[in-house]
Amino acid sequence: MSSAVIQKLKELGYTTISEEFYGQVDLWESWYVGKVKGFHQYRRYNGHKWTKHNRATLSMGKKVCEDWANLLMNEKVKITLEGKKEQDFIDRVLAENNFTVKANEMQEMKSALGTVAYIPRVTGQGVTDSGEIIPGDASSIVIDYATMHDIYPLAWQNGFIYDCAFTSRVTRDGKDYVYFQIHRRANDGTYVIENRIYRYQNEQLSDEELKNVSGFERIPPVVYTGSNKRQFVIDKPNIANNFNYLLPVGISVFANSIDVLRGVDTAYDCYVNEFENGPMMMMVKMPATKYEDGEPTLDDNDRRFYLLPEDTQQGSVVETVAPELRTAALNVGLQDQLNMLSSKCGFGETYYRFDGGSMATATQVISENSTMFRTIKKHEVILESVLVELCRVLLRLGNKALGAGLDENVEISIDFDDSIIEDKQSEFARDLQMLNAGIMNAWEFRAKYMNEDEATAKAALPKMQDMVTGGVMGGRGGTGGGIGSRNASSPDYKNSYNIEMENARSFEAAFAIESGATKETTGYQMYVHQDVTGRSLIADTRKDIDALKRDLREANQMGKSYGMSQASIDGMKAALREKISLQERAVTAMEGARAEYERYKRQASAGNAKAKRRGGQWM
Q: What single-letter DSSP state applies at residue 249?
């Protein structure tokens, strides 16, 4: 279909990337599916005639893409917005669009085909007769997902796509149509979205009107967004396109590993054939067979029989051959191919292991110096910008189409999951054994599992000693227990609670809940924190709250591993809940001081602008 789309775009006055590149995409897709024409179907001579066979496959093209998707976009990836209103809005829109599932799926397709796109749009949007959007007149936001087969860049610079056409194939009343959505910049720099639909028949596209196709009647031919920012987001692997480095689209993660994929399936097919041919084979002379219509009655799919030529004189009419299995050698050969594939696709050399006839993924700890960890961090550079841009598009649509009153410039942070391979429970048990054996220092153990620096961990060591004798470890939580616990009157409970609460008000945003705090002083402190650290104090406090909640969930397991009494654990959890409450109050107070914070930002910006003209800096 790509040739018909490219031709139609040319008729409309647009130029896109060549059809030849889409042929490469088709090749990558065939390896992703695991059925490559001319390779996975082949012919074999059985002594009588050529027969068709299917080559066994490990489907490593798909496996590689699945693994990259799981490493890059899993349930532990967090999208955090500074404003609560903005956070709630983004969470709701993403949930309504099944984003947790679809984002992982798109990472897999990106790895397979090189490029995907996220295209948010509004439903129920009202527009004027001239195509102008009626602000606030829409019902919801929908995210469309497109793969490289439906992405046609029209204008780009330095790898950034400014104008792009997206297509989708639909069937209505037994007829096939191709829907075009063309995002382009007008002369004034704002984006215009053209909606077109064409009848698809015999590899040709013919004009059709939107109003004549069911489901497209209310879609306007042209929409003027009024924004100079694009309403689509392009995502691709962070790999240079060596097929044509001038193109703004990506390539498959295995684009340069096709020969290795062939090697893997060739080796695996030999391995499978070794067992299929392992049973006894019978070499049969012509007189031992029956004939039907002048042909020997051999089953083409039965590999146990091999028909000898008619003039074969020596030997019995039927001779058996029992080949010796070469599984050990074939196993080594297959492992070599998997090692090469693993290395070529960015996982390092030993990510895939063919052990005892089963596929496995290496459960090794990934250090920052490993090939895989570096590749992950490399891919996250693009993925982080993609997720941030998608959130900003959604915020912009929320204001324009839904009148949501959102801050489009709110700070957005993406937290990826880099604890990817190791089983954390096993790692904890092993480290605990090392601690008990004296191999690991107590402060090292605490620093690792409490997310503390060396000084903080060493200062907290008395808490760990108290905990071993029935006291409390400095604050790691779980579920259950609390002020209303039956252990609340216990000395262990009170001691544990008091120790955990010692520094409860020492967190950075504690000023916001002090008795003399005002919105003005709170806003000023928020500005100072942002100016000095470059981070949002609200976002930092929310991360601290998440850490406390994680501690609370894990309290029972952690406390019991240190020999804490249940009363001590309950006291610790009660204190953790109170600390969470204090910090949540601080966030609420800072949200209430946002106007003062913005005022200080404007004042500083204006002052710096004036000072810059004088050759200095105001703040």
A: S
